[in-house]
Amino acid sequence: MPSSPSSPSPARPVRSDARRNRDKLVAVARSAFAGAEGPVALEAVAREAGVGIGTLYRHFPTREALVEAVYAAELDDVTGSAALLLERLAPEAALRAWMDRYAAFVATKRGMADALRASVASGRIATPATRARITGAIGLILEAGVKAGTLRAGVQAEDVTLLVLGVFLSTADELDSERTRRMLDLVADGLRAG
């Protein structure tokens, strides 16, 4: 029975070499976009990943598709890092370390700004979903801190998300600056219990 246009066709398994190529392309693009002040040449990404430009376009038919894959990988890393930090650090230290990780995530988006704006405008990247994931990571750390008695009870994770985003917006031209670190220190200090 043929599938209807609205039902998804069964996905073919991805060959391991194709998966490796895709992963290499994303890793190289992450690095290239992180240090870029402007557009990154896709040919350079393919060359650095050790594949041809045709392979890049098979995986990512547009620049926006590559940017979206990089963004998704980075978002996975930053949101997943909350639990990892809590395994190694006390909740209040994990919170501050996570804020630095999130600042690095935001800073790396400079080289992808135009493509990200286009993806957000088209709905391919949903900002409410992104914010919910960030808020979830913050909430995880806050909950652990409340249980440990080191972070204030009654603080809404969404409020902390907005505070941190406010820091990033106010220091957009200097995200890796001492000022950003000082402001994040103030936010973290304000969340300590007692």
Describe the 3D structure.
This protein has 194 residues and is an all-alpha fold. The protein folds into two domains: 15-61, Arc Repressor Mutant, subunit A (Orthogonal Bundle); 65-190, Orthogonal Bundle (Tetracycline Repressor, domain 2). 71% of the residues lie in helices and 0% in strands. The chain is built from nine helices and no strands. Helix 1 (16-35) packs across helix 2 (42-49), helix 4 (63-88) packs antiparallel against helix 5 (91-107) and helix 5 (91-107) packs antiparallel against helix 9 (178-190). The longest helix has 26 residues, at 63-88. It starts with 15 loop residues before the first helix and ends with a helix. The relative contact order is 0.10. The model is unreliable at 1-9 (pLDDT under 50).
Question: What's the gist of this structure?
Answer:
The chain is mainly α and 194 residues long.
The first-to-last residue Cα distance is: 66 Å
Largest sheet: none
Structural class, from helix and strand content?
mainly alpha
Helix content: over 70%
CATH topology of the largest domain: Tetracycline Repressor, domain 2
User: How would you describe the shape?
Assistant: elongated
